[in-house]
Design brief:
The protein is mainly α. It contains 20 helices and two strands. It is about 70% helix and about 0% strand. The chain has a two-stranded antiparallel sheet with strand order 1-2. A hairpin with a 2-residue loop joins strand 1 (about 155-160) and strand 2. Helix 3 (about 50-60) crosses helix 12 (about 265-295) and helix 16 packs antiparallel against helix 18.
Length: about 500
Amino acid sequence: MEENIYHISEDQLQRYRQRGYKNEDILPKPAEDRHMTAMNYFTLWMGSVHNIPNYAAVVGFLMLGLSPINVMVAITLAGLAVAVFMIFNGQAGAKFGIPFAMHLRSTYGSKGAKLPGFLRGVVAAIAWFGVQTYTGAAALTILISKLWPAYLEIGGEVLGITIPELISFVIFWIANMAIGFGGGGILNKFTAVLSPIIYLVFGGMTIWAINVGGGIGNILQYNMAGDVSINPILAYLMIIASVLSVWAAPGVSVSDFTQNARSQKDQALGQVASLLVGYLIFAFMAVVIIIGGTIHFGAPTSGNGVLDFINQWDSLPAIIVATLVFLMTTISTNATGNIIPAAYQLAALFPKQIDYRKGVLIAGIISFLIMPWNFMSDGGGILVFLNAIGSLLGPVAGVMIAHYYFVNKQEIDLDQLYFDTSGKESRQNIYTGVNKQAYVATVIGLVLSMVGQFIPALSVLSDMAWITGFISAFVIYYLLIRFSSKASTIGIENE
């Protein structure tokens, strides 16, 4: 084990349990219980890139007015940006073995952590879980209708969705919940098997797209945006910000995964290889498949993007295989980035009432009740949704990284972090109360990332909401700490 990995003793764990931390999911992971290698992280994220919302987002990217090659480059750079963010924000989890809930406490304070935890673990994760489940259900509807055409003729509409779509949603929801209940162990096995299948199938789809699109040269010269023109730098930033928004939730809570790393090297190498290589391949495949399909069938007619093309194929076996892979990738992404973090965060917010399995159940029920099909009613809806998530979580990410590296100096006092929950601990504990500077920076970052939606002249700030929120919150928090006479070395102001 590396020197920069903190070793947790059983005596420490027992002491924390006696202080009221009965939920094992909240406790730091000892070295002997950390089993994720670089290869685990590589397969974990590689499969998560290829899902229906990501392909739908690429349709939006191509409509910005950039050339296909520029869109590929921008997506690849975005993958590198995500990797850097995940590695830096994941270091605390890997070093101290702590989950996101406790990483958040070390930044915002014990009471202050509740709101950003709620935004990530309840608002963002559950909303994303619902959207991913709905897009997967759309693929399932295609699959069932090809095997049983009368399926689409069932009933009318309920809650703004057709009966067949609702049935598909329920079936796919149950499948996602099953993986969620299985937790990280089942997920690691699932992604290890799935990753090579993904690249075989999407590789085949890429070859198909090149053939029907008139060759790779014809595809790379195709313009999906018509007469639309945009400043290339702004378009690049918008694409990078949108991809970062896709990863805003898992990126903020990446400690839930890096706490299982055998070493910092494992999490760093695994994540950079996974995301950089994954997005490089995805950028090429997604652009080629979407443009090739558009040349052959016409532009996608719904918010589900490439599913429109699959639905028009002549080969039933090809439809079945491609759709099943889309279903599996969506389940993998949903478990990794949404249902597992949501369950952990609900358990952290209500430790006496909710454990991990109850958290999965509650998150799943809420994801159903919000009727996520309303978010995906048209092709542009996915970009609007991504910017909303970026506005919420970009500022939180900026504050977390600024605090860990420039305030905590990469050190966390676990003995104080896991203070006595009975109230016997001194109010001078450095992690109790609310980090007011962090809240000020987060709120200002949130306002700046959303202001463009209300003031057209500042729309550029909202067009790249995650970047706006992250940078502004990071800088403001650093300045508040740097010039605040009240700030302690940790930066928490007790109530």
